[in-house]
Amino acid sequence: MHEDVVSNLNDVRAHIEAACRKAGREPSSVTLVAVSKTHGPERIRPALLAGQRCFGENRVQEAKAKWPDLKQEFPDIELHLIGPLQTNKAKEAVALFDVIESLDRPSLAEALAKEMAKQNRRPKLLVQINTGAEPQKAGLLPDEADDFLTACKERWGLSIQGLMCIPPFDADPTAHFKLLGDIAKRHRMKQLSMGMSHDYETAIAQGATQVRVGTAIFGARDYAA
Ligand SMILES: *Cc1c(COP(=O)(O)O)cnc(C)c1O
Fold this sequence. Notes:
The chain is of the alpha/beta class and 225 residues long. The chain has helices at 5-23, 41-49, 60-73, 90-96, 106-119, 145-154, 174-186, 200-205, 215-218, and strands at residues 31-35, 54-57, 78-81, 99-103, 124-129, 160-165, 191-193, 210-213.
């Protein structure tokens, strides 16, 4: 890793391309979501100037403080919410984000449907699956996914583009990525958001269409700051 964001970004782009080639996929079939949580505009701006437009944040409040100004300057930014969303923040999330990747329960589906109608703004939606059934992690259990995805469509009129997962940190992620792909296939969904700094190449081999990479681009996060 380098000190400067742009060198890191270029390395990650090159690794994504190589992983695509190896898997017989078009590099353009994978979107890099640069995860900028905890990092300020002074680290985000160089990535923007290097052409990166797709970013991920995990907290509504933090994103609200950082992104409206940058969006004015770079109107084609695509902002993804990748962290858990409280129902009472659905309004702000619908107003700010272009993609919400963390839909994981009926009360949130209902709140998002209501806000999207009210604001006439339709962020793309992904459903988060807790593939490792970890109690501390957000997301639906894999065996709840089918009923929930059907309900999203039939009960709340929501169009779901795909699925997101965060495999257990110390596990081989391959089985988790495969499971996510199987559920998506059953529901004819194309988007698979999977793979982070330590496993995005594996995720690409398993069909990821979006990889969420933070540390490998921006460096370690300082939560004390
Ligand atoms: C922080 C975060 C990432 C990025 O993780 P890195 O290991 O820094 O690449 C990806 N996805 C989610 C949901 C995150 O919260």
